[in-house]
Design brief:
With 500 residues, the chain is an alpha+beta fold. It has three domains: 231 residues, no CATH class; 59 residues; 165 residues, Heat Shock Protein 90 (2-Layer Sandwich), CATH 3.30.565.10. It contains 18 helices and seven strands. A five-stranded mixed β-sheet has the order 2-4-5-7-6. A hairpin with a 5-residue loop joins strand 4 and strand 5. Helix 14 packs antiparallel against helix 17. It is rod-shaped, with a radius of gyration of 44 Å. This is histidine kinase. One of its GO terms (molecular function) is phosphorelay sensor kinase activity. It catalyses: ATP + protein L-histidine = ADP + protein N-phospho-L-histidine. Keywords: Kinase, Membrane, Phosphoprotein, Transferase, Transmembrane, Transmembrane helix, Two-component regulatory system. InterPro entries: HATPase_C_sf (IPR036890), HATPase_dom (IPR003594), His_kinase_dom (IPR005467), HisK_dim/P_dom (IPR003661), HisK_dim/P_sf (IPR036097), Sensor_HK_Regulatory (IPR050736), Sig_transdc_His_kin-like_C (IPR004358).
């Protein structure tokens, strides 16, 4: 992930959507500032690095005087108390100055900090502190035994280089600048030293400065990478929070709009059906010539077309209103003890006329002695009629339809309607189960429908705590199964797995 700002990242939208979340606002503001940098280290990263450096200096202020005092005490053995006291006071004073700079930095507001100015001020403090180690490098002890003072001098300065590198690595260039005077003095000592052992230690000491400089720079870059990764994570979290806020708002609006639509359609039942019933009634009176002959045969054909269109429109309105009432939560179930097999027989007789007109073979397989279910009889009839009507509608002439009613493996009951029609492609099944959705093959090979039959079945089965399954293979047929749970059956049969 790049740390550059995303092109779709709308800061105004984020600020508006997340106005109630103070933590999110702060994260977004901080992240935008960090990701606005083009190359190098942005001011935000620089301030964080300086803040870490200041914290390290203040934390080291507790323990740093101890090694300085111990070094001064050991130095008094070689150079005398006066010289050692001077060095100790200077070293402590220079490090105290660093601590004061760090405290002053920490007391300032973060947005008002000039990164370059404070970086130079910290580096200057380290250079001054480094003069104490440079002074230690110039000392010598002629009265000491061979190599005793040189080893002490080498050890102390080497540890000082390592200590500064570990404490102050977040400040770029701190190690080389702190020990530049010390390095120059060591180079002079190497050139003038007649002893190879002393010269070797001085060469090692000289090489320790660039080595620990590289180590400190690697640590600094690692800390910077961690900050960038944290900024990317904060940015991702902020984007996810923003997307969630926007999606929640969009979902709420969509739900409100859908509920308003469903309520509107559910309350329009009387207003739509009343004039439509008048159209159907008057067209039927005129078509049957109850009040007298029409006189013109063409008018009678027109009246029959009006009546047929009105019936089609009434069926469409009824289906839309039924689905809308279910979605609006205004479809009430009048539950009672009903038997599924007699309902299925009645529905089969209802659609048999249409099936015979298409020369369809309709068979039924009913499980014997099925107990009653606790359900809404009107809803069960609509479920079975819709499934059978769909099968009759989409099965070609001379096809076969099978209606089955029986037990499920879990002790519930099911209604299954299968046919050998054109079938539905697998990727179109979700479309068929959506409102007004139809499969492409079925549309070409069957009479036109509204596409609401299966969604209504699915909604009614769900209201009965059941599940609806649609299984189909292209050019082989379709099977629609409405499954009702065993909690609806008044005499529950043991599940098959329990019998086993």
């Amino acid at each position: 992930m790049s740390i550059a700002a995303h092109p779709l990242y709308d800061s105004q939208l984020v600020s508006r959507r997340a106005s109630g979340n103070a933590d999110l606002n702060r994260t977004l503001r901080r992240t935008r500032e960090k990701l606005s940098s083009r190359g190098g280290v942005s001011d935000s990263y620089g301030r964080e690095l300086l803040a870490q450096h200041a914290a390290s200096v203040q934390a080291a202020a507790v323990v740093l005087p101890l090694p300085v005092i111990l070094t001064g005490s050991a130095l008094s053995v070689f150079t005398g108390p006066a010289m050692a006291m001077m060095w100790t006071l200077f070293a402590l004073a220079s490090h105290l100055g660093l601590v004061l700079i760090a405290r002053r930095f920490s007391a300032r507001p973060g947005d008002s900090i000039d990164v370059r100015r404070w970086s130079r001020l910290f580096l200057l403090g380290h250079v001054v502190a480094g003069l104490s180690w440079a002074y230690l490098a110039t000392l010598s002890c002629e009265a000491c035994g061979p190599m005793r003072f040189e080893i002490f001098q080498f050890t102390v300065i080497f540890l000082a280089v390592a200590m500064i590198a570990m404490i102050s690595y977040t400040l770029k260039g701190v190690v080389p600048l702190t020990f530049v005077p010390t390095g120059l003095l060591v180079v002079v000592a190497i050139m003038s030293s007649p002893q190879p052992v002393t010269g070797t230690m001085q060469v090692v000491l000289l090489g320790a400065v660039p080595f620990f400089s590289i180590v400190a720079e690697r640590l600094r870059r690692s800390a910077l990478d961690r900050m960038k990764h944290q900024a990317e994570k904060d940015d991702l979290i902020a984007e996810l929070e923003t997307a969630k806020i926007v999606s929640d708002e969009a979902r709420r609006r969509a739900e409100d709009a859908n509920l308003a639509k469903s309520r509107f359609l559910a309350t329009m039942s009387h207003e739509l059906r009343t004039p439509l019933n008048a159209i159907l009634g008057f067209s039927e009176v005129i078509g049957k010539e109850i009040l007298g002959p029409v006189g013109n045969p063409a008018y009678k054909e027109y009246v029959d077309d009006i009546h047929a269109s009105g019936q089609h429109l009434l069926g469409l309105i009824n289906e839309i209103l039924d689905l809308s009432r279910v979605e609006a939560g205004r479809y009430n179930l009048n539950e009672e003890a009903v038997e599924l097999v007699p309902i299925a027989r009645d529905c089969l007789a209802y659609i048999r006329v249409k099936a015979d007109a298409k020369e369809l073979e309709v068979r039924a397989e009913f499980e014997k002695d099925l107990p009653a279910m606790w359900a809404d009889e009107r809803s069960l009839r609509q479920i079975v009629i819709n499934l059978l009507s769909n099968a009759v509608k989409f099965t070609p002439r001379g096809g076969k339809i099978l209606l089955r009613v029986g037990w499920t493996a879990g002790g519930g009951q099911y209604v299954s309607v299968s046919d050998n029609g054109p079938g539905i492609p697998e990727d179109e099944i979700p479309i068929v189960l959506s409102s007004f959705g139809q499969g492409s093959v079925a549309i070409k090979s069957a009479e036109q429908g509204t596409g609401l039959g299966l969604p209504i079945v699915q909604a009614l089965v769900k209201m009965h705590d059941g599940t609806f399954e649609l299984q189909s293979r292209l050019r082989e047929g379709t099977e629609a199964i409405a499954i009702f749970p065993n909690s609806r059956v008044l005499e529950v049969m043991e599940a098959l797995d329990e019998i086993a």
